[in-house]
Amino acid sequence: MRRLALATGASDAITAPKESFWRADLILVGITVFLSPMNYFRADFAYITLGDIFALLTCSIMFMRGLLPLHPLGRATAGWLISVLMLASGLLLGSAMNGDLLTGIIVVGQYCFSLILLPLIVMQRSRDEVVLLVKIFVLSMVVVMVHGAWAVSYTPEDLRFVSRNGRLAGLVERENATAALAAVAITFTLWLYFISELRSWLLPLIMVPLVWGLLLTGSNSGFLLTAIGISFLTLFSGALRVWIGMTIGTALFMFAIYQWGELFLPEVFMERVFGALESGDVSEAGTFEDRLELMREAFSLTRNTIFLGLGADQYRTVSIFGAPVHNVYLLLLAEGGLISLLGHLGLQVTSVFIAWPVWLSRGTRWFGVLTITATIMLAFSQMGITHYYARFWVMPWLLAIAASVAVMREEEESA
């Protein structure tokens, strides 16, 4: 098997010396992870980001050195690939029969890049390497938020990074996506702290820019996603001290916001989030009602797309609003039919399948916790976005899955 792996440029695991953190593939994948949230750095003619170039370089180096894993997700690789095939085939079939085949090929190609190529360069790494990549992602989001806070304060008229209503879009270029990634980064940071990979004095230095950036986005969904991430990270940990600590910390934070929030919170947060929470009026929470109308339209439209979808990126052409529904589940059902939706759900089930035995083991529980929590967070966030092949959506999810895969790999090697 090892000879076959070397001959084909692939292996079941990355077998370079464990103590070496200066390998070319690790450096390149670290740069890829660092650039993944920075959607701003991309080509004008197609959706090709700077991070994609480094991902291809990483893949090329790993292929030449025989380091590409044959089974990137271990025993769950077949389930993952079948799910990707289902998602892609539904979109392609709908595009060929009802929509634009070229557009279908482009969209499916983007999904395949994110869901097939990226796992090849991220999975089957050692536990130490996965932790390092998670740290790099958190560092990247700190940079994004510091840059965004500077833009909001000193160049609020720059519409590349700040929306017309003063919300932070940052290098991600999307307000709600920036908030969602801040929520993920906050969850990752707490996880690193709980597994003793982050010193106590570093925790506030990292959390402050992430939380402040989250507030600057004025995103209700981002605020809720943060609460979901912290809650499930605490819940699945099964550690009483973590439950008590997080409960007290959250209560104090919410009390401070309620009592003195007007003195220090950003104006955009007070208008869009705090105002809606205080009054209970969802009309103050931004575009919720507009998106609800799109979802109502999608519910009626998908009755006719169960077996054959409209084709990739075709929802906007039939919608009376001229826009895609901001709900991945409804959008895939409309454009790719039931087969695409089932493929998408299969990816989520596969990630939980990978994490479940890791979570059940007391010694590796925290790694399973990260995978399950990140999957839940992504599943929730997909109720408010369109297609999710953008690398900033997929990379943090893959890093969380890689944490459980790393533990499973270690157990198989020691058996």
What topology emerges from the helices and strands here?
Blueprint: H1 2-8, E1 10-11, H2 24-35, H3 50-64, E2 68-69, H4 77-97, H5 101-122, H6 127-154, H7 175-194, H8 202-217, H9 220-237, H10 240-264, H11 267-279, H12 288-301, H13 315-318, H14 328-360, H15 365-381, H16 391-414
Parallel strand pairs: 1-2
Helix pairs in contact: 2-3, 2-6, 3-5, 4-5, 4-14, 5-16, 6-7, 6-8, 6-16, 7-8, 7-9, 7-15, 9-15, 14-15, 14-16, 15-16
Count of distinct strands: 2
Low-confidence stretches: 1-11, 13-19
Structural class: mainly alpha
- What is the quaternary state of this protein? single chain
Q: What's the helical proportion of residues? A: 55-70%
Spatial ordering of strands, largest sheet: 1-2
- What value does the average pLDDT take? 89
Number of helices: 16
Strand content: under 5%
**How would you spell out the order of helices and strands?**
HEHHEHHHHHHHHHHHHH
Rg, alpha carbons: 21 Å
- What gap, in angstroms, lies between the N and C termini? 18 Å
